[in-house]
Amino acid sequence: MKKITYILMSLCCLTLYSCGMTEPWKDWENEGNLGEDRLRPSEVKRVLCGADGWKMTYEDVTFYFRFGEEGTADSDSDEKILENSVKTDYKLDFQGGEIVLLTLSNGGMMRYLSDNQESTFVITGYSDTQITAKGQTYGKPMTLVTVTDAEMKQAKDKKEQFIIAQNKKQAIEKLKSELGNGELRSANNAFYAHYSIACNDDVWKIKISHLDGKVLKHTEYAMTLTTSDDVKAVLDIEGLTVNGEAVKAIYFDYATSGLTTDNPAVKVTLNKSSDIVDRYNSSWKTHIVDRDYICDKFAGMPAQVEFDDRSPRHIVVCPGSNDSGQWHYIFFILQATADVQAGRVHFEDRGVEYLFGNYGDDAGLVRQIEAVDNFLNFNYAQSGFWMLEDGEYLYALSTDSDEWFRMKQ
């Protein structure tokens, strides 16, 4: 076996060129200047792509890799990690004549390891059928050997049966927890309704929350759960129609843990309010409340109310001008969290800031405006609310009342 040293680097190392380092792929044009003993990116790509696939046993788990000419890699494992396969990008480069870099953008399937995760390998030798290496972080030995398509398919089929068995066993708990709320949307992703599933004493119900014009409605439907099928669990629903489309059943696929309906015009998405909260706490852009499309209880709000992009975040109320004609703004400080399992957003009232003007008890005066007071109380409610996207708008929907509003960046 030819002795060569190169490193599979993590993505963060590769991206250092953006901080002033040379763009790594530019060195490829000079790889012909390396000595004959040195490993070239083109040789590594030939070895990786020349085999049907590669397998490696590490931390008592067997991992499988398949490298494509187009720069993508499929990564999977045996049944000891019951997660679906991962597709990732890979890049090849070298530093000088001694190190070749092979970068997997997210570490592939090894990211699911509880201990000794590695995304960086130091390879000590290679041939067309075997690669020997050690992990860069923990230094544990690794050996990759080639496998055939038939071997990889056999391993994949075996793992799929384990996943199906596990998901079938866990179907009820998953439907009560992480799959218990989400959205019903059109085939082209237009929002139809929010759904939430509940089970008490083996009695299943689904609550559908949707906007009928400007009225938010919540309706419960009885369901029956059947898990006797070997492919999917079936939630039969009595009398549900969404946006004119009948939905008689929701299916839980044992192989993918995904949800579908019996009507191809209505799809299930597991969008979570927590995803929006993550954005709200990081890359949020100021959104303005749409006063023309809002529940009646909030009608009559002042000229502008916005959720700003300052840190900390605020609800900014612009009540107009005072007796002296001076415009002013009230900043109600918010802290946002999310209940992932219940799918709800929670805003905590953290006080008031006067960043522009202070003309007496501005906050108190604003709270005397009934529409604004109702709006703030809705956002501060301990029960939280659902938040979702539909095109260019964000909607906040009460979980049990007819209160709601929308906003736009």
Automatic annotation (TrEMBL):
PROSITE patterns, per database record: PROKAR_LIPOPROTEIN (PS51257)
Domain of life: Bacteria
The protein, known as: DUF4302 domain-containing protein
Organism annotation: Bacteroides acidifaciens
